[in-house]
Amino acid sequence: GTGGPPGPIITKNLRALGVKTPVLGTHAFGFGFIIALGGEAMEGVEFPAAKPVVFDQLDENDPAKPINIDFDKRWKERYGTPSDQIAGYGYDTIGLISDALKRAKEKVTRSSLRDALENTKEFKGTHGIYQFSPTEHDGLKKKDLVFVRIEGGKFKRIKFPGIE
C-alpha cells in the first residue's frame, strides 16, 4: 500500500529514477510526516482527503470549519501538536456515540444503540455532517471530502468547479 511510510518512499524512488508522471496518493497521505519523509519529491502530489487536513482552508460557511478550529486548539493545548484526520475521526466517533446514547430509548442495548445511530441526522463533526439511516451507514457524503495538493511543503486545498 501507499499509506504511511511506503508512499513517500515510493514517490522519492520514482523521482530519483526521473519519472515525471503525476502521483495521486490516497487519503493516507494527509499527514505531516508524509511530507517530512518524502521531502521535495512530494511536491505536486495530489490526493483525496478529509476536511481536518485543510480545515483552515475550508469555506467560511462550511459547518466543519469552526468545529475543526475548536478541536485543533484543544488538541494542541493537550498534546502540543496539531490535530489530524485520525484524531478527528476519533472525536467524531465519540461525539456520534454520545449523541446516540442520549437518544437511545429505555435501557441501552445493542439494538437501541444501533437504532439511535441509524437515526442520526445532521450531526456536525470535524469531517462533515453525518446522516445515517437503517440502509445508509456511510454517514458522510461526497461533499464532505476535499482534494489536496502538496505545494511548498504544505497541504493546499484544490477546488473543482461544479463539484464543490
Topology, please?
Blueprint: H1 6-16, H2 32-38, E1 46-50, H3 64-79, H4 85-103, H5 110-118, E2 123-124, E3 129-130, E4 145-151, E5 154-158
Antiparallel strand pairs: 1-4, 2-3, 4-5
CATH classification, class level: Alpha Beta
Q: What is the domain tally? A: 1
Q: In angstroms, what is the radius of gyration?
A: 18 Å
End-to-end Cα distance, whole Å, is 29 Å
Assembly level: single chain
Task: Outline the biggest β-sheet.
Answer: 3 strands, antiparallel
How is the CATH topology named?
Answer: Rossmann fold
Structural class: alpha+beta
> Main sheet: which strands, in order across?
1-4-5
Run of helices and strands: HHEHHHEEEE
Residue share in helices?
A: 25-40%
Number of strands: 5
> Low-confidence stretches at least 5 residues in length (pLDDT < 50)?
none
Architecture (CATH level 2) name = 3-Layer(aba) Sandwich
pLDDT averaged over residues: 93
How many helices in DSSP terms? 5
Net shape: elongated
What is the percentage of strand-forming residues? 5-15%
